[in-house]
Amino acid sequence: MNSDASVRRLKGPGRPVVEAADRVRVLAALDCVDAVVVFDEDDPRQALDALAPDVWAKGGDYGGTELPEAQVVRGHGGRVVFLPYLGGHSTTQIIERSERALQTTTTTGEQ
User: Fold this and answer.
1) What's the rounded Cα separation, in Å, for the pair 74 and 62?
2) How many domains does the chain have?
3) Residue 58 belongs to what H/E stretch?
4) What is the residue range of 29's domain?
5) Do the strands 79-83 and 55-59 form a parallel or antiparallel pair, or are they unpaired?
6) Residue 104 is assigned to a structural domain of this protein
7) Which pLDDT score is estimated for 78?
8) Which residue from 29, 58, 73, 83 has the fewest beta carbons nearer than 10 Å?
9) Is the bond preceding residue 16 a cis peptide, omega within 30 degrees?
10) Looking at residue 65, what is its pLDDT?
């Protein structure tokens, strides 16, 4: 999982919305997750090379894209799996909806 500094570099100021420690807790609580590793680089190739996971899961929004790290995972005999994409649930989309709602509230004077 990207560190807070990595997310900030990739997504910009104000990100991440949820700190790494909390994101780790959520992922680690899943029965299907064996371990969570936080990496500071902008992509996970170095961590994946060291860990050689059996499965590397990515969100479905990456589907159809050749990931830079896929070669590393497959080189160790692992596989890359794309999870189903649930539209409207990305952090970026949640932030955008919240900002629109705030603008509407500010414009209309609602509270």
Assistant:
1) 17
2) 1
3) strand 55-59
4) 4-86
5) parallel
6) no
7) 98
8) 29
9) yes
10) 81
- Which residues are 80's β-sheet partners? 56
Cβ contact 21:14 at 8 Å = no
Low-confidence ranges of the chain (pLDDT < 50): none
Amino acid of residue 85? Y
**Cα(1)–Cα(57) distance, rounded to whole angstroms?**
11
**What is the radius of gyration, based on Cα positions, of the chain?**
17
The answer to whether position 111 is within a domain reads: no
What pLDDT, on a 0 to 100 scale, did the predictor assign at position 110?
Answer: 63
Distance CA 14, CA 94 (A): 13
For residue range 36-62, what is the model confidence (pLDDT) as tens digits? 999 999 999 999 999 999 999 888 888
- Residue-level pLDDT at 24: 98
